[in-house]
Amino acid sequence: MNATLKSLLAAPLKKGDTIGIIAPAGPVRNENDFSAGLKILTDLGFKARYQGDILRHNGYLAGTDQERLAELHGLWRDPEVKAILAVRGGYGCLRLLPDLDFTLIRQQPKILIGFSDLTVLLSAIQQQTGLITFHGPMLTTLARSDRDSQEAFFNLLTGRSRPEIKIKGLEILKGGQARGRLLPGNLTSLVHLLGTPFEPDWQNTILVLEDIGEAPYRIDRLLTHLWAAGRLEQIAGLILGDFDQCGERESIWQRALELLAHRPIPLWANFPCGHGSRNQILPLGAEVRLDSAAGRLVFPQPTGR
């Protein structure tokens, strides 16, 4: 984040508040998932607002760049919309960044939630405005998220997030304590931000990585790229989430251990973050402490009001 920017945290929601639904990347592929996600939001007591053509297709994009930007800006300007939830990832957020109205976003802070390709949007907004954004389930993944992930999602929206996250089944590959700003995201998407004006500040971050559908050699290449670019020299800790359909997870863990062999920083694996049913919502840009002895993430400052 720009060091001159003060960190911003949007106000939590109350039952009856409106959540804006955006499609800033790929188009909806499964309308049943879309409907199931809407039902969960209404069952939780929220209203959903979205454009009537949100199911539009423009090849691999959910509309033209202008359509997707207008949708995002329109809902962000809407005073009744208290949070913004992405429909799905895919690809497309990178194309929006040059024309994104960061001034509007900073002046009217809202909760923004997504993952996968949304990593680009979450990271760029946090870096340019100071707004804490949230890496977590999207509308079309809510229904297949497990109970813990859905509960954490609801608690975050309503300002009742717990001050710590203790993980079942966590693998501590390298122990130790660390503290820094949380940077969760999709590995491929984060690597694509290298060298751009929207690249995150890696210094003293707790980096959380996940991916899906990448061949093992591609995961190796992406991790090696981060190392070769010097970014792994800057982080304070690394957490590996789910790598669905990316080959043997142990080989990914081993490559991360090799790349960080010379650095005495914590390295965790099997964290519930990614494209599967386990997708713990995480505040991008929030201060966090890694406690390897207890296997928990501790948030010194609240991530909801």
The main sheet comes to: 8 strands, mixed
Give the CATH class of the largest domain.
Alpha Beta
Topology, number of strands: 14
CATH superfamily of the largest domain: Murein tetrapeptidase LD-carboxypeptidase, N-terminal domain
Uncertain runs are: none
Strand content: 15-25%
Distance between the termini: 21 Å
What is the CATH-assigned architecture of the largest domain?
A: 3-Layer(aba) Sandwich
List the helices and strands in order.
EHEHEHHEHEHEEEHEHEHEEEE
What share of residues is helical?
Answer: 25-40%
Overall structural class, as computed from helix and strand content, comes to alpha/beta
Tell me the domain tally. 2
Counted by DSSP, the helix tally is: 9
Query: What characteristic shape results from the CA principal axes?
Result: globular
The chain-level mean pLDDT equals 95
CATH level-3 fold name of the largest domain: Rossmann fold
Strand order of the largest sheet: 6-14-13-8-9-10-11-7
Gyration radius from CA atoms, angstroms: 18 Å
Question: How would you summarize what this structure contains?
Answer:
With 305 residues, the chain is an alpha/beta fold. The protein is built from nine helices and 14 strands. The longest helix is centred in the first third of the chain and has 13 residues, at 31-43.
